[in-house]
Amino acid sequence: MRIMKLKYKSFVYVACITVFLSTGCKKLVEIDEPIDTKTSIKVFNTDAQADQTLAGIYSQMIGGDRTLKMMFGGATVYGGLAADEFNVTNIINSPLDYEIFKNQILVDNDILESVLWQQTYKVIYTANAILDGESASVSSQLTPAKRIELKASAKFLRAYGFFYLTNFYGAIPLPLTSDYTQTIRLKRAEPELVYQQIIQDLTEALALFSDPRAAGFTAKTRVNKSAVEAMLARCYLYTKDWAKSENHADAVISTTALQLETLQNTFEPNSKETIFQLSVNPSVSVGMISETENLSPLYALSFLPPADRDLFLDPDFYKEIELMVQPRIGLHDGLVNAFEAGDNRKTIWANYNGTPNVAPYFGKPMYFAFKYPNDPVIERTNYVLMRLAEIYLIRAEARAMQNKIALGKEDIDKIRKRAGLGNTPAVDQESLLVAVAQERRIELFAEWGHRFFDLKRTGKAISVLSIIPEKNGITLNRLLFPIPPNEILANSNLTQNPGY
């Protein structure tokens, strides 16, 4: 028995060392200047220079240091903690995460500044610099097609950043230029104005992508026309313009290059379901997706035979490997119990490790998100920003709100059938909207904070979240994150959110 334990212990430690040795990285080309830095406009002279800068903004979204970013795992992890998707498995080791889980965030919680606020505004700054640089260029070597790609991509990514900032923070500054003198003292714009700017950016991007010269811009690892349509469908859903939401969802769903995949292939790099994704090269970006590293343990024990799995559950041995077989952020019991019997999404997109049948574990399985492979030696993976299943659910909700019950049911049933479930029993608008909310919760769990935003936009956040003991007493003020204090110190026109 001891020999077997030592064998597996050695195996675990070797695997751990392998991951740590993979953390050396080579920085990608990026424009990484904060919004309050004064710089000259970078004028584009050639297509090659433009391509380099576009590659830079995508690498900026990912980063090269394996840490969470708003657009690379941060929205998922912290949106999920603020809702009823995740919990913190080790409170002592993750006190800042626990504040977010309890919805009792202290204003000096630097996650909000470094991970969510600053990184997103850096991407927005870069998008603005791209727009300013293209506008200032008179070079004939910058082709009309490349100008279209520059402008459409920058407008989409700026809108994408504004969307997540306003959903986490409420009213936010709206910088529309890289000129420091015009952005350093911006006041906060209310969400209604933010959405107006988002929709304007997306509408202008869509018009650019509709130009025949943009016909070749279809790569899923770059902003493309379907991504713009999908984001418009989402934003019109949030602003309750149901007809426009349905129309843009129609445009995405009718794209012949897109189709629902099997559950096993949904998040693969070549998935036909993906609308927009970031390409992650482990040789540059340190291996595993940062979101995977935070939501999955180093080791999933499910690949072992049951008898061998029991070796890891010996209480004495488990204490030594606990941090390797427990996720830092696990699935909340409420989510685990929300899956219907027979739902294949629970067995394919979630996983669990057992625990010893002694205090404080009591043999309770520890569930974690398992949508992406947790493999540090894969050659290349991807990070999905938008996918087709969400668009079906957007259209289902938009149709339900317009009393198109039969059509809404068809959209939901496509998602349920893929999961191994029967048709929805919904028969009217009220029951169909309940069905949509359930499918969004299950289909989109551990993705981009959808659940947190859904609870807020539908007015159900307080009633749903207050049931969780750690969140008891949650108020409307606590559904917004506090503005980072350093940002308020740097800009006297910024104000703090109520309740902080």
Write a structural description.
The protein has helices at residues 2-21, 47-62, 74-82, 95-102, 111-136, 144-169, 180-183, 191-209, 225-238, 242-253, 282-285, 290-295, 306-312, 315-325, 333-336, 344-348, 388-401, 405-418, 429-443, 450-457, 461-465, 485-490, and strands spanning 86-88, 274-280, 329-331, 350-353, 366-369, 381-387. The strands form 3 sheets. A two-stranded antiparallel sheet has the order 1-3. A two-stranded antiparallel ribbon has the order 2-6. The protein has a two-stranded antiparallel ribbon with strand order 4-5. Mean pLDDT is 88; it is low at 1-40. It contains 22 helices and 6 strands. It is mostly helical and 500 residues long. It is globular, with a radius of gyration of 23 Å. The relative contact order is 0.14. The N and C termini lie far apart (55 Å).
Oligomer: single chain
Number of helices: 22
Radius of gyration: 23 Å
Given the helix and strand composition, which structural class is it?
A: mainly alpha
Number of strands: 6
Molecular shape = globular
Features:
6 strands; mainly alpha; 500 residues; two-stranded antiparallel sheet; two-stranded antiparallel ribbon
